[in-house]
Every structure is written in C-alpha cells, then in structure tokens.
Amino acid sequence: MFRKAFVFFFFFFFLLSVSVSLHAANALKNEGEIGSGGEGGAPAGSLVKKDQRRSLVSTEYGEVWSVDVNDGHRKPYHIQFITLEPNSLFLPVLLHADMIFYVNTGSGRLSWTDDDKIRRVDIKRGDVYRLTPGSVFFVQSNLETERQKLRINAIFTSNSDDDLYDPAVGAYSSIRDLVRGFDPKLLRSAFKVSEEVIESIVNGTDQSAFVHAIPTKKETFWDLEARFLKTFLLGNDGIAFNSKKKEETTAYNIFDEDPDFKNCNGWSLTVNKKSSHLLKGSNIGFFMVNLTKGSMMGPHWNPRATEITVVLQGHGMVRVVCSSTEANKSECRNMRFRVHEGDVFSVPRFHPMAQMSFNNDSLVFMGFSTTEKKNYPQFLAGKYSVLQNLDKLVLAASFNVTSTTIDQLLSAQADSFIIDCTSCAEEEERAMLEEIEKKREEEEAKKRAEEEARKREQEEQDRKREEEEAKKREEEERERQEKERKREEEERERQEEEREREEEASKREEEQAAREREEQAAREREEEAAREQEEQAAREREKQAAREQEEQAAREREEQAAREREEQEATREREEQEAAREREEQAARREEEGRQQEEEGRQGGDERRQEEERERERRQQEEWERREEDAQREQEEARRQQQERQGRAGQPEEQEGGGGGFNADEGRRYLTALKV
C-alpha cells in the first residue's frame, strides 16, 4: 500500500511538471501512436515486439533470445529470454553483470558459486532471484509430468551508472571457452593433473550452450568437466557440485505472497530490497500486474524509476504521455500502442502512463524497475490521487476551471490504482488506428507530394536534359557547321591557291604571250610607221592636190554665191516693190472701202464689209506664211549646200554673212514689213 504522507513531497513537482502532463493527457483522443509532440521528437516510451527479438542460441535442448530496450536516457537495458526443454542443461557461464530473473513457466535447479561455496536453489514458476557479477552458474530443467519448458526472463544491469552492461562484452561467457583458451601445458601445470585429463577437456567435442541433462549413474564427459570445474573454481580441497555439503537456499515466489493491492479489477505486487533480501545491493526491483477484463492501471508515473515491462499473458493497450514543458515539447512524442504476449516496452521516469485490458481478455505483465532509491508511483486519479492533497483553488487555476468542477473531478472515482475501464482499451485502439490511418494518409499524401515533387523534378531534369541535349546538339551542329565551313574555307583556299597558281601560270603565259605580242606589235608598228610615212607622203601629195581643187572649187562657189546673192537681191527688190504696190493698192482699197463703208454704214451694210475685211486679212496671212516657209526652205538649202562644200574641202569654212543668201532674220523682218 502507498502512504499519503509521501505525496506531499511532490507538491511543487506537480505544479511545475504534472500540470503540463495533465494538459497533454486531456488531449489523448487527438493523439496517435506517434503522439502529438512533433514528428521530429523522440517517443515517450519504447516498444519491442516479440518478433523483433534477436536469437542468440537455438538448439533442440534450448534457446536464448534477447532484446535491448532504451529509455532515452541511459544505455539500453539488456533482456534475455532463456528457454530449456524438459531435462536439459544450460552449461556453466561466467556472469559479467548483475542478473535478476523471473521464472515464467516450468521448474528446475539453479547452481552457482558464491564466496568459495557451491550454492543451489530449486526454482519454479513465480520465482524471482538474483545473481551477482562474477558468479559462475548453470541451470537444469526438471523432467515434469506436464513436460513444461523452463522459461526464464532475465535483465542484466549493474549497480552504478559507470558500470553498465556492455554489449561488446556480453552478459556472460562460457567457462568451457575460457578454459580451452589456455595452452594445454599451462593447464597441466596449473591444475597438476595428468595429460589425459587435460586432453579430454581441451579436445572434447564442441557443444552449444544447451545439452541434454547429465545421467546420474554412468560417468560421462560432463562428470569429468564437473570434477575439473571443482578444481578450477574451488581448488583441490574444494567442494564438488555433487557434494553432500551443498548449502540450500530459497527463491522469492510472488505467488506465495499477498498482493500489494487487489480488487475486482485486478491485483499488483512489487518486490524490492525491502521486501526481499535477494535484491539488497541491487538497483533493480520487480513488479507484476494482473488486470481483469475491461480494467486499467490508473494514470501514474514513477518519480525515481524506469519500468521495463514484459507481457506474460493476454493483450492490451498502453498509453504513455510526455512529461514536458512548452520549451521542450517538440523533443518528445506521446505514444499509444497495443501489446501482446512476449512484447517488451519501457517507460522512463516522470512519464505518465496507463495500461488497459480489453473487454474480452485479461492482461498480465511483469517487469523490472530501475532505481537506487525508494520509488513510490504517483497516481493521478482515484482515492490516492496526488491531486487530493493539493489546494482546490490552485488546481482550479491550473486547469482554468471552477472549484465545483475540481470537486466533481476528484469525488467521482472511489477506486484506486486499478480501476474499472470498460471499452477504454477499445477506444484507445480505435484512436490509435485512426492516428495510424491518419499518419498513413499523411505519409501517402507526403509520398504523393514527394512523388509529384520528384516527378516535377524529374520533368525539370528531363527538360533541362533535353535542353542540354538540344543545346549540345546545337553546339555539335554549330561545330559541325563550323568544321564544314572551315573545310569549305580550306577547300576554297585550296581552290583559290590552285586558281592563283593557275592564274599565275596563266599570267606568266599571258605575259610571255604579251611580250611576244608586244614584240610582234613593235615590229608591226615599225612596219606600220614605215607604211604611214609612205602613206603620209602620199596623203601630203593628195592633200596638195585636194587643196588646189578646193581652192578652185572655192572660187567657183564664191562666184556661184555671188551670183545667187545677186539673184536673191534682185528677187527681194522685186518682192519689196510688189509689196509696196500691194500696200499702196491696199491703202487705196481701204480708203475706197472706207468710203463704201461709210455709205453702207449709213445704209446698214457694216457686217458685209467686216466679213470681207476678215476674209482679205486671212488670205494675206496665208500668203505671209507661205512666203515665210519658202524663205526658210531657201535658207536651209543654202546652208546644206555650204556644208557640202565645206565637207568636200576637208576643213570647216566660215559661213559668209553680209549680203550673201536670204537668212531667217531677213525673212522675219520681211514678213513683219508685209504685215504692217
């Protein structure tokens, strides 16, 4: 039974830590197996399923399985499950660490050395026993009528934080391997026995950790080894294993003791150094809890101990809540998990927990608690709740509720420790499955998002790769084109060089031909010059003759021109005279017509005279135009004849002016005079 007097010492601790834990406990329905403390935080507890055990030894006579359980603060706790078939022997080993074990099923005998003495104890289901480091022990199972296997659940630890179980060394080592590790000659000198004995020990057939039990009548290899162990462990004068001077002792059996607490919902029992002298000097305690159907070990925490629990029977749910503040909440995750027979789980100190059985099955579990001082579990609900000792106003302020609500909270539950909780495990399992499903959906969504991200990244990589390939192809194409261009340029240069060489050759040929042509032309020019000189002389002679002819022709033309001018002058004089007569006649006619017009004007005949006057002017105009055209034709003819004379003479002659010919200016003056 737990005394209320110790509860007061945890008052301040509750104000600082438990209140936060209770706030977390109120949110249990919203938390999954991984808890709500953040995905990046460490879990509040540790769970190792039965199928996660490691096999150390497995033979037809026995097997050893192990698990390492971590509480998040120290090195892992090493648990072993040793199973012996009926009438089997677990061979002697040297113990490296403190060993506390519980016999789960079957019976047998444990033998070990202690203070130069051989001790033994009969063990059966429910026994709790302890062996200290340095002990050499072996275990033999009984051949019972029920042929039950001897099953031992053991924890290996130490009595100080500086000397924990070292996985590199192991929990124990075989005595046979230790002895056989020495040289036979050294062993013969050390034990002062014959060579035959040493050879039988050293050269014996290797055996595993388990063998069939030693016969009682016929001496075998194991009898020889037993006598050898007597000398090895105790000296020649020591007591052998089968000596009649063995000291008997007894184990602590939990079924022979009354439970610490028991009601209709189950019972619990705790074994520590106070209740059993076997655990004195050890920092490991033992406990067992039996929950009936639909029950719960109320929410509680251990202020000084970590619990390492093994499920012995049935199945149930476990809820573990982080003991944290707002500052380190992200470093821990609340947990809820389902446990079955053979599962191992641990809960560190200060972490509130609750174990629940299902409505259709009970839950039995045993465990080891690690503490160097007295540990009194603190319960949140029930008759012995730590809340009962606290001021209700402080509690109301802590939960931000009224005092009436606190009274209702603390007065409703009359049971303590183990309480009725119908369907609690089912609800926890449902919440766990929902959280698992939610987590699975979140993981699937995250996986889909990651897949999409990877797909986008892959597409981006493909796009970049395609761009790089396209760029590479473009570069290769550019390089190819550049190479092609260079080849073309080289080809063009080569062709240009060939063409230049051909042109150079052609140029040389042309120069040679040109020189030849120049020479030929020079010769031809010389010949031509000679011919030209001859022709020039001939032309000079012809020119002299031509000049003489031209001079003769010029004289003739001058004479002809003089005659033509005389004729033209005579013609002009005649025309002028005719024009004068016509003007006089016209003046006379105009006077006559004027008189007639005056007479006709008086008679009204002005229109007829005007018409006649217009007709007369028209005829005069046509006559003037005809004469002007004739004058122009004559002038053109004279000019043409003059050009022909100049062409025949071979040099230009100045056009004679003065009285020679009838030019355009004279014609215009003549026509103007006619008009007047």
Spatial sequence of strands, sheet with the most strands: 2-25-21-27-19-18-17
CATH topology tier name of one domain: Jelly Rolls
> What is the CA-based Rg, rounded?
72 Å
Oligomer: single chain
Helical residue percent? 40-55%
CATH class of one domain: Mainly Beta
Global geometry: elongated
Query: Number of DSSP strands?
Result: 29
Report the uncertain regions. 1-38, 217-224, 236-247, 652-662
CATH superfamily of one domain: Jelly Rolls
Structural class: alpha+beta
What's the helix count?
Answer: 10
Q: Could you give the distance between the termini?
A: 171 Å
| Sheet with most strands | 7 strands, antiparallel
- The portion of residues forming beta strands comes to 15-25%
| CATH architecture label of one domain | Sandwich
Mean pLDDT: 78
Protein name: Cupin type-1 domain-containing protein
Pfam family, one: Cupin_1
Keywords: Signal
Organism: Malus domestica
